[in-house]
Design brief:
By secondary structure, this protein is mainly α. The protein has one domain. The chain has a two-stranded antiparallel ribbon with strand order 1-2. It has 17 helices and two strands. This is Glycosyltransferase RgtA/B/C/D-like domain-containing protein.
Length: 402
């Protein structure tokens, strides 16, 4: 079942990946980023090397990104820390391309990669010193290795994904569960799969030992921070609004129309994933459950847009493997709409407000319905660098470089 990727098929993707490295690299020259958690991870590193003790940056800690970003920052500042994010991002896109080549054409695979690469929140995560891209990279690499029938290595990579973002743990369980019927009649592969799952459990436990001890040998670190501003109505409003503006309003409307009209999706949904098992069927149901799981988690905590990054791969995969004709046009349209959303304009339906100035926070406290055209998301992100990023970096330097 394994399809050999011929050099002639890779020439286009190499040029595109090179372009992404350059363009992402340019965007990555603008500092660590605006996310508060970046500076918490840097604090964790500084505390570790100056005081010899580990203090988690947040509840779960996310050990691998904390250590990697901290060490990279120590060696090469935000330049090296951000460049690692660029490399992990582009590598994730290449792995996704290789997965798609098993199922669809090279052109569709390339456009699918660009559909992810053009999303403004993917670009932000790919060019700043945050942990989101680490979880994506280790998970999709683990999935690729699992499909290549190397479950033990996949188990370790999945553990690294969970160490980067704990929310990947249920997605790993889904991957192992869906893959299990594929081992039917393959005793050696089934034993390897069981061993791979054990490797995942043990390695995950080892990765979380530091935060376990830092939490007083308790499981209190498994808690999720509340996001109850505005009560239940506020949660629903943020959930709906951020699901829409993760893509941008025009692109979101386009995706809704695409999937409503795509009857082949419904036919695949009702099929039993455990009958006539094929890799493409497993990936389809995996993508579907990934969407369901991540939306449930986001409803629990509709805070950061980047929590929805796994949806990029799932939604794009469903589009790429759809039975509809003219998929190249649909994927191209999605790319164009997202580039407009990131670089040119944002057709927004809300006007948000915050108690403190942008110099101290970029998180909104309230909002009202007000249709307006605002600058692109990436332009807004860069504008915030001169205020909010400067404030965060100033506070960090006051503590460690008085």
């Amino acid at each position: 079942m394994t399809q050999v990727i011929k050099p002639s098929k890779l020439i286009n993707i190499y040029w595109i990946l090179g372009f992404l490295v350059i363009s992402y690299g340019i965007f990555a020259l603008n500092g660590y980023g605006n996310d508060d958690d970046t500076y918490r991870m840097l604090n964790t590193w500084k505390t570790l090397i100056s005081e010899g003790r580990y203090v988690p940056s947040r509840f779960q800690g996310n050990l691998i990104p904390e250590l990697t970003i901290g060490l990279a920052s120590e060696i090469g500042g935000f330049y090296l820390a951000n460049f690692i994010s660029v490399v992990l991002s582009v590598s994730s896109l290449f792995i996704f391309y290789a997965l798609l080549l098993r199922i669809t054409t090279s052109l569709i695979a390339v456009l699918s990669v660009l559909a992810i690469a053009s999303n403004p929140f993917w670009i932000i995560a790919s060019t700043t010193s945050m942990d989101y891209i680490y979880g994506v990279f280790f998970f999709i690499l683990g999935l690729f290795i699992l499909i290549k029938e190397k479950p033990r290595w996949a188990g370790f990579l999945f553990a690294a994904a969970v160490s980067s973002r704990l929310t990947y743990a249920p997605m790993v369980a889904i991957a192992f569960l869906l893959y299990f019927p594929y081992t039917q009649g393959k005793l050696k592969l089934r034993n390897s799969l069981i061993q791979g799952f054990l490797v995942f459990l043990v390695a995950s436990g080892v990765f979380y030992l530091p935060v376990f001890f830092a939490s007083g040998m308790s499981l209190s670190f498994l808690a999720i921070g509340p996001d109850a501003s505005g009560g239940f109505v506020g949660i629903i409003a943020r959930f709906v609004y951020k699901n829409i503006y993760f893509w941008g309003l025009p692109a979101f409307v386009f995706l809704i129309i695409f999937f409503i009209q795509d009857r082949s999706i419904y036919q695949k949904i009702v099929t039993n994933p455990f009958q006539k098992v094929r890799v493409e069927k497993l990936l389809f149901h995996g993508a579907l459950w990934c969407i369901i799981y991540n939306e449930i988690m986001f409803f629990r905590l509709p805070h950061e847009y980047a929590y929805l990054l796994p949806l990029l791969f799932s939604v794009t995969y469903l589009m790429a493997t759809s039975d509809r004709v003219k998929k190249t046009r649909y994927l191209s349209l999605l790319i164009g709409l997202q580039l407009l959303y990131g670089l040119i304009f944002n057709l927004d339906v809300l006007q948000t407000y915050q108690k403190d100035p942008v110099a101290k926070t970029i998180h909104s406290d309230s909002a009202k319905i007000h249709v307006s055209i605002k600058e692109g998301v990436l332009i807004r992100e860069l504008n915030w660098r001169s205020t909010y990023q400067a404030y965060q970096l100033s506070e960090f330097n006051k503590k460690w470089h008085p």
